[in-house]
Amino acid sequence: MEEQGLGCPGSASEKRYFPESLDSSDGDEEGVLACEDLELNPFDGLPYSSRYYKLLKEREDLPIWKEKYSFMENLLQNQIVIVSGDARCGKSSQVPQWCAEYCLSIHYQHGGVVCTQVHKPTAVQLALRVADEMDVNIGHEVGYMIPFENCCTSETILRYCTDDMLQREMMSSPFLGSYGVIILDDVHERSIATDVLLGLLKDVLLARPELKLIINSSPHLISKLSSYYGNVPLIEVKKQHPVEVVYLSGAQKESFESILRLIFEIHQSGEKGDIAVFLACEHDIEKAYEIICQEGSNLNPDLGELVVIPLYPKDKCALFKPNDETEKRCQVYQRRVVLTASSGESLIWSNTVKFVIDVGVERRKVYNPRIRADSLIMQPISQSQAEIRKQILGSSSSGKLFCLYSEEFASKDMRPLKPVEMQEANLTSMVLFLKRIDIAGLGHCDFMNRPAPESLMQALEDLDYLAALDNDGNLSEFGIIMSEFPLDPQLSKSILASCEFDCVEEMLTIAAMVTAPNCFSNLPHGAEEAALTCWKTFLHPEGDHFTLINIYKAYQDIALNSASENCVEKWCHDYFLNCCALRMADVIRAELLEIVKRIELPCAEPAFGSKENALNIKKALLSGYFMQIARDVDGSGNYLMLTHKQVAQLHPLSGYSITKKMPEWVLFHKFSISENNYIRITSEISPELFMQLVPPYYFSNLPPSESKDILHQVVDHLSPLSTMKKEQKMCEKCPETTEQRCTIQ
């Protein structure tokens, strides 16, 4: 992405020329003397504002501030420093600023500072906060880079970015020469990208002795990090005051009822403060939201209404940002109830949360390489996750943590650390990246926890099926181009195939829509029928992928022809569509189109609507998703996967479910094993088209099944030899037309 201030609040230009006006003052001698007394900000050369000093006092009260001298001394004398501290100790905001001071002191001769975050909202929030504390402009001296949004310039001193963005930057700059200090924050989250960076940076540090690496982590992981990196200095931030913890051991069996009862008891007690509720999954958030809204209206009005805020997982595009209306409501009604199923990162900066309710379990995605599908498993959270949830109460001495489990459950059933994502996720994208970085000589990665061999083999096998590898196991030309796209490799392959089938514009729209959060809004109780009526206007007979194109085109038409953004939001609201998700799809599509143009891929004019175009789109989709095919085995919507014996149903929001027309063969985008084995985003395909595009060695490796036998018959029907045999039989039966038929043949 080109370096620009996309979506950056504020402007660097207003403040930039203020010093010149001071220097040119020649009449007011007292004014000049007064200006000379002002302390100047070394990062932009301008006088500090009064707000800087106010925030400086707050920074000095943070637990980590006492360690500043020790940290700076260790930073000067060592290449690697580990910082251990709790979630609210200030390490994520203060350590990067101290590193920026270090880089300034040596005149940026080795580069600036980059600080990675696991979560997108955290990177943005930290950048905004730190720019405020440093008294500089966001998008200029301090910026952020998250997928599909870059709020930095070439002059940015301190960048916050997601760990996957820094990983992608290594493809073009393997030794990260733009940075003098790299900070890996929240390493205890153990995301795939953070683990890969921990391994690759070992070699980068050897190649660049001047580079500094800072590792921020919770105390739980420190012993493992110390043994992984050897004898490196450790800065330990002392723990804050203890939080009152109430264990409700009998509440776990009826946790949902206990949560609701606790919320209403806290509210009726009249004690001030917001409530954060940690639930197991998104479904529980929706259920709790509906019940609390209904029951809350029956409470004593003198206590005020409860303002319920659902914080959905990252794929829901619903990070809570209070608008004016919400702020007014919260001032009047005094209490927010935040429902979340995350680790609580977005609540770390909240000083209003006085009560935390934790169910102690979560629903996790665990990838099974044998069947190429995620399983949704309910399991206890880790002790480190429970600790972070406790830390949300931070400096609140009057706060309470209600644990809906026993102390025995916490000590025996909860594992000490959060599971390593690398050992539970699909590794195909990671292996593609490592193959790409291997070109620069950094292919060897010393993982802190080795990924499962079976997952690695499955990833290599899938890349081979997608033609991303050559005969020697290195990246092919296809693989190199696929790695340019910040997408799942299957989706990247479909975009490349669309160049051959003249449907690039349509495929980019599909890629953007499936990468963005779900475009359908969460429905309030009783709105299902009205929503389905609206959504039916977008349905396309060829399948859900085509429906997504219809929705995007309708959104784009409204956006282009509307006088204001409010009109677009109203249209989305009226059609029960997620405006935030559609905006994100628009940004993603623009980025993908930019990549297509940069690497000079052929791009035909859009022809959406024609039969030939629909067939070409299916060909492009099949080129990437031939491993995700299912067949309706009994005509009643029970779809059997081609790769394994799992049976699934179409998702209720699929166009086929709405119209009650079940195709026999479908290509699907997502499948997870849970109580509802749904396949999501499906489009009908023909077995003949599948056999034309599937790699022969993939088909030959499929396990025996009735579906495979049917496809074998299709192969026999399509093969030239079988066609000749049929013609010969027909010639024998009709001797009088033999000459004519043979001539045609």
Helices and strands in order:
Layout: H1 13-16, H2 18-23, H3 29-37, H4 50-60, H5 68-77, E1 80-84, H6 91-105, E2 112-117, H7 120-134, E3 142-146, E4 149-151, E5 158-162, H8 163-172, E6 179-184, H9 192-207, E7 212-217, H10 222-229, E8 234-236, E9 244-247, H11 255-269, E10 274-278, H12 282-296, E11 306-311, H13 324-333, E12 335-340, E13 353-358, E14 361-368, E15 373-380, H14 383-391, E16 400-403, H15 407-412, H16 428-438, H17 453-465, H18 477-483, H19 489-500, H20 504-515, H21 528-536, H22 544-561, H23 565-574, H24 579-598, H25 611-625, E17 629-632, E18 639-641, E19 647-650, H26 655-659, E20 665-673, E21 678-684, H27 687-693, H28 696-700, H29 706-718, H30 720-733, H31 738-744
Parallel strand pairs: 1-7, 1-8, 2-5, 2-6, 3-5, 6-7, 9-16, 10-12, 10-13, 11-12, 13-16, 15-20, 19-21
Antiparallel strand pairs: 3-4, 14-15, 17-18, 17-20, 18-19, 20-21
Helix pairs in contact: 5-6, 6-7, 8-9, 16-17, 18-19, 19-20, 19-25, 20-22, 20-24, 30-31
